[in-house]
Amino acid sequence: PLDITHPEDLADSQRLVKEMLGGTERCCVEKRYLRKSGGILWATRTACIIRDKDGKARDFLIMVEDITERKRAEEAVREGQRKLEAALETNQLIMDNSQDVICTIDESGRFVTINEASETMWGFSPDELIGRRYMELVHPDDRLATENAAADILESGKLADFVNRY
Fold first, then answer.
1. Which residues, other chains included, contact 76 with Cβ-Cβ below 8 Å and sequence gap of 6+?
2. Does the pLDDT of residue 159 top 80, yes or no?
3. Burial (CB count within 10 angstroms: exposed 0-12, middle 13-18, buried 19+), residue 35
4. Residue 5 burial (CB count, 10 A)
5. What are 18-71's pLDDT values in tens digits?
6. Bridge partner list, 52
7. How far is CA 149 from CA 72, 95, 143, in A?
8. Shortest CA distance to 145 belongs to which of 135, 155, 154?
9. Contact at 8 Å (CB) between 62 and 47?
């Protein structure tokens, strides 16, 4: 098995063999093997040592389970998380450097995120607004028009030229 072990995993594999020969009866590890085609096989390898009646190591029993697809899926998830984190950082930079109020509002009309411009415009810090309903800031005479505009946004995904007082 060491002959087809990925070079980066070879030292750990050799260390585990020594530990098993020294008394460890069983070990389970994730490691890479080299396929005949040159590709990489990720595997969970469980090894047990078989001893003779005098307790000397006689053989290894090795069970290998292919986990290559799981490893690919895990890497795809990690890559997606990296991209999402980068997009969130970019979004936050845009929000933090804007002179206009930029916010996200959940389905119940409550602020989820809001940038620092809220303090300049409305006198409320982002921490004071997160969790509050945005409609609380809308002038009473403009609430019906604002609710209608919000309904239009939800239906069409677009809004143009809407003005109200806060």
1. none
2. no
3. exposed
4. 18
5. 888 888 889 999 999 999 999 999 999 999 999 889 888 888 899 999 999 999
6. none
7. 45, 23, 10
8. 135
9. yes
Is the pTM value of this prediction over 0.85? no
- List the alpha helices (DSSP H) in the chain: 10-21, 68-96, 117-122, 126-129, 143-156
Q: Which of 20, 18, 40 is nearest to 31 (CA)?
A: 40
| Strand 26-34 to 103-105 pairing | unpaired
**Vertex 20: Cα angle to 51 and 9 (nearest 5):** 135
Distance from C-alpha of 135 to C-alpha of 38, rounded to nearest angstrom:
62
Instruction: Give the closest residue to 9 by CA, choosing from 30, 31, 26.
Output: 31
